[in-house]
Amino acid sequence: MISTASAAETIRVRLDWTPWGNQAPFHLAAKKGLFAANGLDVEIVDGNGSVATVQIVGNGEFDVGHASLAPMAIARAKGLPVKAIAGFVRQNDIGLLVPKDSGITKPADLKGKKLAFTAGSLEAPFLDRFLAAGNLTRADVDLIAVDAAAKGGTYMMGRADGVFSTVPFILPLVSAQRPSSVIRFADYGLTFPSFGLFATEKSIAAKGPALKAFSSIVAGTWTYILDGHEDEAVQAIIDARPQAKLNPAVLRTQIETLKGFVATPATNGKPMGVMAQADWAEALSVLADGGLVPAGQDAAAYFTNDLIDPALVARAAAGGR
Q1: Which helix (H) or strand (E) holds 87?
Q2: In this structure, what is the dihedral angle of CA atoms 246, 248, 221, 75, given to the nearest 10 degrees?
Q3: Helix and strand counts by DSSP (H, E) for the chain
Q4: Can you tell me the mean pLDDT for 111-131?
Q5: Full strand arrangement of the beta sheet holding 142-145
Q6: pLDDT tens sequence across 140-151
């Protein structure tokens, strides 16, 4: 625990997106007073996409960012001095949503189908490899590029037979109107980490103890939430962002959906937040195959587990300070 006898350490956090279920631990930890109890004064700011969050945090405007860690890795390979300090959604959560009654269960079933995607998103560089798993090419499908904000509506209105996106975010939003199933990228060899925390090398050096407390509290609060406290987490998001007029059922389903993506075989049994070098090595190989990072990257340079305190994770997981 950081001493509270001195002034609280300020931590400015940039989130990935507008409010959704994935941000539950930040708001619940703040509501329960866990940050303050550990000497932290935490400012939580919404984002407008993982790529933007990576750039903004990388430029030094925030102490820590919450985003998909694949864009962070891509930025680091290009020279931005950022590093992952905690992994929460440790599986690739990108996939293709298709109607449950469509009969589509695998890439080979997509021939002749109209599929919505976003050109600047992380799914775009991997579409060819995903389709190749079904012995298809882009010429075999009708790919329609739409803005990220329009993907859900395009799919729900039946203007596409499928939509590529972050599954835990979009599936609960569209399923009430168009019940859907998912074909996951990770099931076809496209494995890389999703949401977690990252910071610049400068921030890690300057605020290491504070970042360690912050990361550990968030990790422990995630564990607490997934251990049967989902509704408490949903209410914390709604209380923190009342102007967003959020649907509690959607938030709850987003959290439930995230449960299927939090662990990998290499991280099973490890505290929330801890990352595995084997996962990062595989991720960098996949990103290199997609032309997003140079081949031969050192996985150890992209992440650290030094800012996860298992004892503090355990305390937060138990609901205490």
Answers
A1: strand 82-87
A2: -40
A3: 12, 10
A4: 90
A5: 142-145, 114-117, 162-166, 94-99, 180-184
A6: 999 999 988 888
184 beta partners: 95
Question: Does the pLDDT value for residue 320 go beyond 90?
Answer: no
Of 85-94, 122-131, 138-147, 259-268, the least confident: 122-131
Cα 122 to Cα 80, 152, 166, 287: the distances in Å are 18, 16, 9, 10
- Separation of alpha carbons 97 and 99, rounded Å: 7
179-217 pLDDT tens trace: 999 999 999 999 999 999 999 999 999 999 999 999 999
Tokens of 143: 């790919």
Q: Which two tokens stand for residue 219?
A: 């990790």
Rounded to 5, what percent of the chain is helix, strand, coil?
A: 45, 15, 35
Q: Which pLDDT value is given to residue 321?
A: 61
Distance of alpha carbon 15 from alpha carbon 291, whole angstroms: 27
H helices within 227-309, ranges in order? 230-240, 248-258, 277-289
